[in-house]
Design brief:
The chain is of the alpha/beta class. Helices cover 45% and strands 14% of the residues. The chain contains nine helices and seven strands; from the N terminus they run E-H-E-H-E-H-E-H-E-H-E-H-H-E-H-H. Strands 3-2-1-4-5-6-7 form a seven-stranded parallel beta sheet, sandwiched between helices. Helix 1 packs across helix 7 and helix 8 crosses helix 9.
Length: 266
Amino acid sequence: MGNYYQDKTVIVTGASSGIGEQLVKILAQKGASIVLCARNEHKMEQIVKSIALPEEKYLILAADFSKQPNFISSVNQIIQKFGQIDILINNAGIAQKSLIQDTREEVERRVMEVNYFAAVNFSKAVLPHFIEKKRGHIVAISSILGEIGLPFVGPYCASKHAINGYFESMSYDVEKLGINVSVVSPGFIKTEITKKSLTGSGAMHAKDSVAQEKGMDPQLCAKKILTEISRKKMKSYVGGLEILMPKFAFFLPRIFHWLMRKMHKI
C-alpha cells in the first residue's frame, strides 16, 4: 500500500458501516483527505469523531443513492473544499434475498439504482475532472457474485454482473487518458449486508447467513481492498476460499449447479 493514499482526496460511498467504515478509518491513518458518502449522516459524524479526524481532512455528504442525487453538485462541493479528487471508491450497495418469482419490480429497480446506476453516475461525474487532470482512479466494489449466479439473489447478482461489464469496458475507454479503473470483488465478509437485504416485498430480511457470519473481518477486507487498489490492478479478489467459486462454476458447471441446489435445498 505504501504512501499511495498520502495527501490524496478519496471518496468512499457506503461510508457509514461495514467495509466502507473500515476503508475510512484506514485511509485516515494513511494521510488521505476523505469524503464520506452514505444515507446515515449521524453515523458518519460518529465515525470521524471516533478517529479524531480534523475538520480540514474530511467532508460528509449525506445522500440516498436509490434516488440518484446530483453527483455533479457533489463533485463541485468536493473540489471546492479540497481542490481536487484523486480516487473514487464506489462501495455503496444493498443486497436482496428472495426468489425471483417472489420479487417485486420496484425491489429489483432499487437494487440496480444503488448498486449499479449510482456507481456509474458518480464515476461519470468525476470523469471530466480526471480527464482535465490527466490522472485519477475509479474503483468499483463488486462481488464474486458478479461472475456467477446463486439461488435467492438474482437481482443482486445482476447488479454486480452489470458493474463488472461496465467498469471493465470503462478501463479500456479511459486508460489512454491517464485514468485507472479497478474492480475489486470481495467474497463473504462479516458485515450486516445480509441482515439488511431486501426481501421480495421490499422489507428487511433481518437474518444473517452462515457464510456471512464466518466471513472475513471487514477491517482485514478493507486493508486488502486498499492494497489491491494501490497496485492499480483492473481485477482483483478479496476473501477466503469462496473467491474460487467462479472458477469452480466455469470448469465444473454441473457439479457446481448440483451443489448449489443441494446447499440451498432447491
